[in-house]
């Protein structure tokens, strides 16, 4: 089937979506696009609330963490366009800005394709376990790349 006929068939099959400029691309072109995707970085910021009271010194260690390797499952919200898998992603840098005993800002610079909400959730758990003694049963599975 020719590409323009496929495009027409898709456009006539539904009034909810439209496609245009459909093209056949080579495997090399797809590999080149994915390669570029791996090299990009994205930055995220979040206001973090902690249930337990903290002081600035409690979160300073976060800024020392570099090139953190995280295993992330495909989030539900993107399962319609990506297969369910566990992917290795990098959090290149993290930094914090203390606000008060229950709030701080967390800034991340991540590898493209890293989904930050799970990262923020892991950070919340990490900060909340600072006042505990002994291993946490909910310790995040993170690994530092040497």
Automatic annotation (TrEMBL):
One of its GO terms (molecular function) is tRNA pseudouridine(55) synthase activity. Pfam families: Pus10_C. One of its GO terms (biological process) is tRNA pseudouridine synthesis. The keyword Isomerase applies. Residues 3-115 form the Pus10-like C-terminal domain. Its EC number is 5.4.99.25. This is tRNA pseudouridine(55) synthase. It comes from Denticeps clupeoides.
């Amino acid at each position: 089937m020719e590409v323009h006929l496929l495009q027409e068939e898709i456009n006539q099959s539904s009034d909810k979506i439209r496609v245009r400029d459909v093209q056949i691309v080579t495997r090399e072109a797809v590999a080149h696009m994915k390669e570029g995707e791996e090299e990009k970085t994205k930055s995220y910021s979040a206001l973090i609330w902690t249930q337990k009271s903290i002081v600035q010194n409690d979160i300073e260690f976060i800024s020392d963490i570099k090139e953190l390797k995280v295993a992330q499952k495909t989030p539900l919200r993107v399962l319609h366009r990506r297969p369910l898998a566990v992917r290795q992603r990098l959090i290149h840098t993290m930094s914090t800005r203390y606000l008060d005993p229950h709030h701080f800002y967390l800034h991340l610079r991540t590898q493209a394709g890293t989904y930050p909400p799970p990262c923020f959730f892991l950070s919340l758990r990490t900060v909340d376990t600072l006042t505990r003694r002994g291993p946490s049963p909910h310790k995040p599975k993170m690994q530092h790349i040497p």
